[in-house]
Amino acid sequence: MTPRENAMAVYNREQPDYYGDLMDAIVLLPDPVLMGDLPPQDGKIHPDSWGVPYEWKPGAPGPHPYITPENVVVKDIENWDRYVKVPSLENLDWGPAQKVAEGVDRKEKFVGIMFGGGLFERSHFLLGMENALMDYLEYPDEMKELLSVIKDYKIAYIRQMTEKVHPDIIFYHDDWGSKQNVFLPPTVWRDIIKPLQQEISDAIHDCGMIYMHHADCICQPLVTDMVDLGIDIWQGVIAQNDIVKIQQITEGKLAMVGGVDGPAIDIDGISEEAIRQEVRRAFDEYCPAGRFYPSIPNGVCFREWNNKIYRDELEKYGRRYAQEHPVT
Asked: In principle, which of 5, 94, 112, 228 could form an S-S bond with 164, CB 3.0–4.6 Å?
């Protein structure tokens, strides 16, 4: 099987050659919005296309918003439209993405686009986390207006990326929680975010793409809603969720990627066997229900030796598990 065929076998509950990280079967394109918003790794503050200040410190794995009361974009949610300038999607340079896409054999692998800054994330990027959480509770109508504008931008971009490179999978990012719980009360999330997310999901599927939602956090209170939305794959499932219970309550309708407790094995002084044991645990606990791709939710161990052991066990045990547990 090709990596793509093997991934689809797991997705369709057919016999794969091996189990493992779905991301290994996807080639992510350097799309122009993502690359244009990527700040230099110089430790200085740089605004993204929405005007949100970002900082990428030398040695850090990635950039992060650096929001203060002085530089926050939206200073008053009741007058949000005075502050928000929606980025233009005209004249984007799709050349690099098209070149990569043309070099992918789509029988071998999927073509994907990483689509960051979902509705919730973009809202707290613009408002600051504390203000956003309060505004969701105190100003729901204004938040709906703001998120509706963000939603329209995202749908327009989804349609443009379809025209330019037609990805197989959209890797949509929106962390809805922490390692302890969801950020918003589920009733608030369902009232404000869910209807708009439904429009985004519909646009993804209308364009013929698989909707893979990244959220490496607790999403357990929202998983039946994720099924309602038509999310095809949840990538980033951390072990702090009760994954077995989620598989039961979603009745297998939500394929999942993750389960290996990355922070638990990405530490100094851990033994090789402890790393391998954690990888095997994820296979043994979550694969029996099907439609599960064991992996570290954020993709890698940042320590080179730890990652080497993790990847070795993922490959070896993934093949062994497939052989010893045939799909009937």
From this structure: 94
How would you classify the pairing of strands 53-55 and 64-65?
Answer: antiparallel
Domain range list for the chain? 3-324
Give residue 328's pLDDT band: very low, low, confident or very high (50, 70, 90). Answer: confident
- Alpha carbon distance 261, 21 (integer Å): 14
Would you tell me how many other CB atoms lie within 10 Å of the CB of residue 102? 9
Q: 28-54, pLDDT tens digit by residue?
A: 999 999 999 999 999 999 999 999 999
d(CA 248, CA 227) in angstroms, rounded, equals 13
Quick check: 250 and 209 in contact, CB under 8 A?
A: no
* Full-model pTM: 0.96
CATH number of 3-324: 3.20.20.210
For residue 61, pLDDT beyond 90: no
Torsion of CA 153, 159, 164, 169, to 10 degrees: 100
